[in-house]
Amino acid sequence: QIKDIPSFFRKAAFIPKMGFWNPKQFFMQAQGAIATAAQAGLENAAKGMSMAYMMRPLQLAGTDAIITEAAARAERALGVKAKHFIESYEALQRTGFQNVGGEYGSFDAHLNPNVANSSLNKMFDDSMMFFKMGERANRLTAWNAAYLVWREANPLRAFDNQAVKQVLAQADQYTGNMTRASAAGWNYGWASIPTQFFSYHARVMDQMLGGRLDGDKKVKMMALHSIMYGIPAGTAGLAIGGVLPVVQLTSDLMKRYGIDPDSNVVSSALAHGIPQAMLGMLVGDQHKAPSISDTL
Question: What is the CA radius of gyration of the chain?
Fold first, then answer.
């Protein structure tokens, strides 16, 4: 039972929006890997994602022999040394970064096991399955990419507690600083109710407009997001999309001047991103293609 009234209302809003076994949530959370690719590099992100999917089964039933075999496979397939795969996996387990629960910025204790003290609450908790899976995939990718970046810069250094903290902080940044450690004052109390789903946009705005990222990473963030979601969403939308509906405003402005962003594949790719343009080609009508930028 949730005794804190603001937490109760946040849960009441969060579960219908993010839960109820909605498969879309898996892809919405997992697409956070785009930010990892922009900041850690495409190669490290790709390897990090592959390592993530190799590590996930180990968390369920990973004996020493199975972990050793997985590490050997990672070395053969990805070129990541077996000892480094094991080093990353073991450090990840100590941090608990892969455990999606009450530390997530939008919902506090909504996913903590002690909340599920009734059949109804357990059903609500189970309904978050796809959200958890997507966020976990995002975190595992970010952690492994951050580890690979650190290990590349420190090939001979011991992966001690200080190094683990550095990788953890970097992985948290890759995933948008959505843990409670980065929470602002308005994430608590009554102010947290109307701003509950603003957290991600606020963190991204802080990264893009503040000093957390250097200029090179900001450019890469905009470039990759523009490729995926279109130039409006990948540029101004990435920085101030949480304050203004940049994508919709841009679309309305284009139509006001007689420009149809869905008139051909090129304009659709520029306005909505390459994936949506490709979907439009497959269905034969750009207007019938689902809007991928809506997931931002």
Answer: 20
Helices (H) and strands (E) in the chain, counts: 16, 0
Distance CA 292, CA 221 (A): 17
Phi-psi category of residue 190: left, alpha or beta, with phi > 0 → left and psi -120 to 50 → alpha: alpha
Q: Between the CA of residue 251 and those of 248, 255, 258, 268, what are the distances in Å? A: 5, 6, 11, 11
Question: What does DSSP assign to residue 182?
Answer: G
The residue among 203, 292, 199 whose CA lies nearest residue 239 is 203
pLDDT value, residue 288: 46
Token pair of 60 as six digits: 């369920």
Q: Is the pLDDT of residue 131 over 60?
A: yes
Q: What predicted TM-score, i.e. pTM, was given to this entire model?
A: 0.84
Contact 68, 74 (CB under 8 A): no
Pair of tokens at residue 72: 């050997």
pLDDT tens-digit series, residues 193-235: 787 777 788 888 888 888 889 999 999 999 999 999 899 988 8
The answer for 210, left when phi > 0, alpha when psi is -120 to 50, beta otherwise, is beta
Which runs of consecutive H residues, i.e. helices, occur in 154-291? Answer: 161-174, 199-209, 215-229, 231-234, 236-240, 246-256, 265-272, 274-283
Helix, strand, coil: what percent of the chain each, to 5? 70, 0, 30
- 8-13, long-range: CB < 8 A, 24+ apart: 9/193, 10/106, 10/107, 10/108, 10/110, 10/192, 10/193, 10/196, 11/107, 11/110, 11/124, 13/193, 13/196, 13/197
Structure tokens at 130: 């796809």
Q: Which of 133, 117, 140 is nearest to 48 (CA)?
A: 140
